[in-house]
Specification:
single chain, Jelly Rolls, 9-stranded antiparallel β-sheet, 1 helix, RmlC-like_jellyroll, Cupin, RmlC_Cupin_sf
Length: 118
Amino acid sequence: MKIYSFKQNTGKSIQKFNSQHVSIHPLLKPDEPFQIGYFYLEANSVLGMHPAMCDQLLMITSGSGWVRVEGEEKIVVEPGMAVFWEEGEMHESGSEDGMTAIVAEGSRLDPERYLPTN
């Protein structure tokens, strides 16, 4: 058995897209384009507007925050909610009080197959 840490202070800080107070722990990066990671969005954070490099599913695990696509208003998200962006879709996310989330990125994501919509 091995014990690993994915605490906030050991994550990789995200600086691209004018992002502030966001870190990630990439958990899976196989040869095929697919990644799973764990995000920490601190209080007053923003992961700046950027295109989805592939399909992305953001699953909120704690705290609360917001998401939006280019040209649209912010939508509040909380634990138990998942947000799906298609490849190329311009989007951003953030949190006033802090939020954590699992992110899955890859070309074969199909959340409609497994998750009910709100």
